[in-house]
Design a protein that fits this description.
- This protein is mainly β and about 150 residues long.
- It has no helices and 8 strands.
- Strand 4 and strand 5 form a beta hairpin.
- The termini are far apart.
């Protein structure tokens, strides 16, 4: 019982999902994602939630030479719940990639930019789409970037 005499409510409903969906990601928005340095992959953003969510970001190329950009979006979900991962481009919202694995499996989408002369920077939107199941444990979305430059410009 709470101090007011009413019963204390569990953070989870009978189905095991949070009663109020978490609509915002933990931490600041991933807009203005860090610049790339070298070839090693590095984590540039991590977000968590317990319901479907939309996130946005930008991957910047900061070199003057042809450098392919690789961005990997990894969605780790708890056992017993199924979320799907969609990555969209900013202009026109074209689907850049999607992963539709079953519950409890890690979804992964890799997006590459060609490495032409000039900037290969791009904006993106990520949708974490709830499909079915229930869990009070959160999903985790990790964004990693890698420069595929043939030379160290």
């Amino acid at each position: 019982m709470s101090r007011g005499g009413s019963p204390t409510r569990s953070p989870c409903s009978a189905a095991g999902r949070a009663e109020r969906p978490v609509r915002q990601a933990v931490g600041p928005e991933p807009s203005g994602v860090d610049h790339l340095v070298g070839r090693a992959a590095r984590v540039v953003a991590t977000r968590t939630g317990t319901a479907g969510a939309w996130l946005r970001g930008r991957t910047n190329e900061c070199s003057n030479c042809p450098a392919r950009l690789d961005v990997t979006f990894t969605l780790t979900v708890p056992p017993g719940v199924d979320y799907d991962l969609y990555v969209y481009g900013a202009c026109g919202g074209a689907v850049l990639g999607r992963s539709l694995l079953l519950e409890g499996q890690t979804d992964r989408v890799n997006v590459q930019r060609s490495g032409d002369l000039g900037s290969d920077s791009f904006d993106w939107f990520v949708e974490v789409r709830y499909v079915r199941g229930g869990s009070c444990a959160p999903w985790t979305l990790t964004v990693e970037t890698r420069s595929g430059s043939a030379t160290d410009c």
